[in-house]
Amino acid sequence: MRTTQLPSLTSTQRAAQAKRLRQAVPHLAAAYLQALDRWLDDPVLRLVGRPIITECYRSPERQNELYAQGRSKPGPIVTYKRGGQSNHNVSPTPALDVAFLLADGSVSWSGLLLSKFARLMKAADARVAWGGDWASFKDRPHFEVLTGARKGGDGHG
Predict the structure, then answer these.
(1) Confidence class of residue 148 from pLDDT cuts 50, 70 and 90?
(2) Which DSSP string corresponds to 113-145?
(3) Which of 48, 101, 142, 144 has the smallest set of CB atoms within 10 Å of its CB?
(4) What does the pLDDT look like over 39-54, one tens digit per residue?
(5) What's phi and psi for 97, nearest 5 deg?
(6) Rounded-to-integer distance, Cα 128 and Cα 97, Å
């Protein structure tokens, strides 16, 4: 029963979420949907915001743009992987990034909220790895599913 007001997604945002989710490998998409349902069904969690997928598949060109951030472009470093090196660069992708849409329409990458969502993602599928658990570079918005060929690790985002 969802009685508390959630941030509403516009039709454009709903379409973008659906498109991003279709880019993910099926078991990652299923884990995200299960975690999202559990989040939205919790009366306390739904008060703080709505999880959204900010990126799933990323072209090598987009990956290189992000790699430049904090190096040749302003801003903090957000990845240590160049184009073609990230799990985001595989299609369908075993990786997605999450943030939170807040009631005022702003977007948050709160480490506390991401850690709460990470518990739900990992409970939904034991193959899910969270970038916030990595030893060196903490990539808190990043979730990926582990496969035999590519293991999660420091900064696959």
Answers:
(1) low
(2) HHHHHHHHHHHH-TTEEEGGG-SSS--TTEEEE
(3) 48
(4) 999 999 989 999 999 9
(5) -115, 140
(6) 12
